[in-house]
Write a sequence for this structure.
């Protein structure tokens, strides 16, 4: 872009000047900034730079197609194109940006609650849809082998509810919770208060369950009249 000056002089030596500005348009380069990954139902802001006028396409999921900044909320992964024009319509530039749309994962650790022997080590194996999962976050950090792995091992000592947050590569997260209750909080032994030895294959056996116990020194079963109907000494639990 150059400004030219012309001077005119008449035969009497009188002079005057005038100027003219020649504007030369330069090639442009368009760039786009914005988050190119989102979860379904979310939205992202895309902003184009480097031009005077813009046209976006396709219009699906966009709140505008003729502004530098647009809000994109596609339902599926979409490639957007923006064409930028200079102020004199001499040059244009084109940029494509792919907005990847991810589904929210679903996470299931299993049943909502478990009752286990005190001292048992239980591995948690959650199942997931809409992965792959990039990060795991377990809480609370109580009697659990790790808080950032997929399948931690918990040691049953006290009642606790564990929550997991699984985040996939799109940044979408799903959660689930499981509550674990020990048979006995303050002891290592559990004995059922009833059983039915009728040979039907259900609850036929009365077992002294224990964790970390070497020997049961004495075990007696009484009937409702206080008579001993069974007794055994010095045997292993379980």
């Amino acid at each position: 872009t150059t400004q030219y000056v012309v001077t005119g002089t008449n035969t009497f030596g009188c002079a005057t000047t005038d100027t003219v500005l020649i504007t030369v348009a330069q090639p442009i380069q368009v760039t786009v900034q914005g988050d190119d990954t989102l979860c379904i139902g979310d939205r992202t802001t895309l902003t184009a730079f480097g031009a005077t006028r813009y046209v976006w396409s396709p219009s699906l999921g966009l709140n505008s197609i003729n502004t530098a900044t647009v809000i994109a909320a596609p339902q599926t992964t979409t490639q957007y194109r923006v064409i930028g024009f200079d102020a004199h319509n001499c040059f244009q530039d084109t940029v494509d940006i792919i907005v990847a749309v991810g589904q929210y994962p679903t996470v299931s650790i299993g049943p909502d609650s478990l009752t286990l022997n005190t001292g048992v080590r239980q591995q948690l194996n959650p199942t997931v849809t809409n992965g792959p999962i990039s990060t795991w976050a377990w809480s609370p950090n109580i009697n659990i082998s790790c808080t950032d792995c997929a399948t931690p091992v918990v040691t049953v000592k006290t009642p606790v509810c564990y929550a997991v947050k699984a985040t996939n590569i799109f940044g979408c997260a799903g959660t689930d919770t499981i509550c674990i209750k020990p048979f006995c909080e303050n002891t290592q032994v559990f004995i059922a208060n009833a059983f039915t030895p009728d040979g039907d294959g259900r609850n036929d056996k009365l077992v002294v369950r224990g964790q970390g116990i070497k020997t049961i020194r004495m075990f007696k079963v009484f009937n409702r009249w206080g008579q001993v109907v069974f007794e055994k000494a010095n045997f292993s639990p379980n």
User: Anything to note?
Assistant: The chain has a mean pLDDT of 91. The radius of gyration is 38 Å. The CA atoms of residues 52 and 86 lie 5 Å apart.
